[in-house]
């Protein structure tokens, strides 16, 4: 093993104790795969908000297949039985695009996780918080709100999200489909975060998969998602996702402070490098660099205030493998 990689792994062990695994792809080839703290290639990790970017991918596939006509469709078109509260107007104008770009308004100051995740129907509970008096079009990062996209996928395709994902994304990519798993209370949620052997995709009591968190994947699986995007939606000679969807997903559609945001993907680094990433709590990331033709997947166990992974990638990983290739 070359000295650069040995030094890099020492940096991980010394300063990034919660990293479970890293996979680096360059020009479609795997150039590095490493596991830490007793983890192996087979171990799945809860990828936290990286789940959002996977759900964005599924919305794109559903649109490509005609289940969704346009992302400018109103959210409520997919919930004909939902009863709008008296005097509520804003919710009627929220579109799928507003959900994808985090520019939908909500009736809360801080996310009502407990209220939503202890309800019987998390999608309906999220819909109850959508709208209100705030303006549409202003960036507001919402994990509970994104749950609505799972409801849209289910109602548009007529399939559970996991079945649709397995058939159209996981199976074609050679990703072992997760099983459904339940989280019924705060204690079970924290148990999931701490579990070194966590598996599955969380569902609500109705059986609808989570959209904002709750999916588990291996670092290899995460790298495959990144490679699919880098390859313009092509995989083993098949078109799994349209290049137009990817192009739209990774350009600035909204902004949180200094960070541009696409369709549940963050645009990171210098604009000319064409870098974007799926980011999740604890330091989970799928990083794609168009300029360097590189994908970096990092799976991490949960820890509060994890060190900046983009900084790690740009400072230590990209230079190491660009120089070695």
Automatic annotation (TrEMBL):
This is Serine peptidase. SUPFAM superfamilies: beta-lactamase/transpeptidase-like. Its EC number is 3.5.2.6. Residues 20-309 form the Beta-lactamase-related domain. Gene3D superfamilies: DD-peptidase/beta-lactamase superfamily. Keywords: Hydrolase. Pfam families: Beta-lactamase. GO terms for molecular function: beta-lactamase activity. It comes from Paenibacillus illinoisensis. It is an enzyme of class 3 (hydrolase). It comes from the Bacteria.
